Amino acid sequence: MVTPAAHCSILDSPILSPVFRYLPSQCTDVLISVNPSAGSGANAGLVDSLAEALRESWLNVEILTDISEVQAAAREKLHQGRLRAVIAAGGDGTFRLVAEHSAAETPLAILPLGTENLLSKFLEIPADPADLAAQIVAGCTVNLDAGEANGKIFTLMAGCGFDAEVVRRLHSERKGNIHHLSYVKPIFDSIRNYDYPLLRVNYENEGERRSLEGRWVFVVNLPRYAGGLNFAPGASGSDGLLDICTFKEGSLWSGLLYLSEVMFGQHQLLEDFTQVQAPELRIESESPAAYQLDGDPGGDLPLTIRSLPGRLKVLVSREWAEGHGYVEEK
Fold it and tell me: What is residue 252's three-state secondary structure?
């Protein structure tokens, strides 16, 4: 049963203050957005189990596969004050797509079914459908910053350079679901052919226009990256700023050095590494170069990125919220 909770309106605007809120008890409608290319079998069973657990708690559940239908249904239920959650059933790319097609005040949740599930790991979202249903029933929400890159939403990071080239190659040859071994061929193809173009980053800091140059650029919103790597451990999802991380040299050997230093958390000591913060930036290249957003191909540079403070309204546990410095709104 949904318990009364509440001091929040479903139509409240995103906020910058680190507070958590509870959804009103009248918010009883849940939409589960399923990526039709995400496979079947076990994943389909998890979606059905989640829907059943939510219905046992007297919530109304719809399972949709068309993102335009999800968008329309969420807008209507949000306007009526009945929407409890739009659940992205998939990986980080699925959540990014759902967030991009949702209004800022839409309560979002994740059923982690992807390869890396970086955002759900950061938020400590339970993979068990019954536990996730209990979290959605509880209705605790926080607002997190997002990034916007050439008009597209991202939640975790944007990458320009070798990693973006790997992602571009992977998706250009994609057939079916992605798993870790899917990256082997595009990585080796990129090693053979990528020429590490010079990337220029222009941004403002304390009212002054500044610039950086490097062969690798990562723009971090939340401190998570594939393979357990963490370029900006101190990145915050509630400060309205993006962490810009650059590595200077472009070669396979320098890349292996950078990788090892990041793995051991020592990269911030490198002379080749620079990290700054800014709410907005632009990345350009001397020759064609790709960028990726949350592990999905984004397109080619140039790229304008800005922070969207409080853009994401996400369902989390109260324990997570309190553990990350959020306090209950009174």
Answer: helix
